[in-house]
């Protein structure tokens, strides 16, 4: 108990946050500023899924798959999430609620 009292009177631990590393780039890898945002934009060059070339799978989950894609004309990189169409919102919500451990649900 005395240890707890001692800790209360100590200054909080502070550590300096290092600056972000400088981006040196990797051959063939675009700079971070060239990545496109995920917000919809009317000037976006992506009009159809055929405009995108799948490069690799970034991740998979119960709801779908995320792919790293490249725009065929501009070579801009995008993340494309394909959601399984066989899942209804009700099913997903029910599965989520089953996994939540809360006395309020």
UniProtKB/TrEMBL annotation:
This is Protein kinase domain-containing protein. Residues 52-105 form the Protein kinase domain. GO terms for molecular function: ATP binding; protein kinase activity. It comes from the Eukaryota. Residues 1-50 are annotated as: Disordered. Residues 23-45 have a biased composition (Low complexity). It comes from Brassica oleracea. Gene3D superfamilies: Phosphorylase Kinase, domain 1. SUPFAM superfamilies: Protein kinase-like (PK-like). Residues 1-11 have a biased composition (Basic and acidic residues).
């Amino acid at each position: 108990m005395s240890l707890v009292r001692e800790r209360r009177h100590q200054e909080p631990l502070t550590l300096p946050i290092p600056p972000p590393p400088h981006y040196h780039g990797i051959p063939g890898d675009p700079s971070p500023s060239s990545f496109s945002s995920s917000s919809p934009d009317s000037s976006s060059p992506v009009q159809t899924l055929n405009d995108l070339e799948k490069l690799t799978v970034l991740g998979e989950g119960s709801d779908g798959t995320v792919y790293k894609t490249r725009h065929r004309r501009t070579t801009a990189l995008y993340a494309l999430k394909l959601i399984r169409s066989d899942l209804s919102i009700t099913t997903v919500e029910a599965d989520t609620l089953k996994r939540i451990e809360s006395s309020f649900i």
